[in-house]
Amino acid sequence: KKFKSDISKKENMYYNTDEDYYICASGKKMLLKGTKKKKTKSGYETTVSIYECEDCDGCEYKSKCTKAKGNKQIHVAKNFMRLRTNSHWSGV
Question: Ranges for the Transposase DDE domain (predicted)?
Answer without folding.
Answer: 23-86
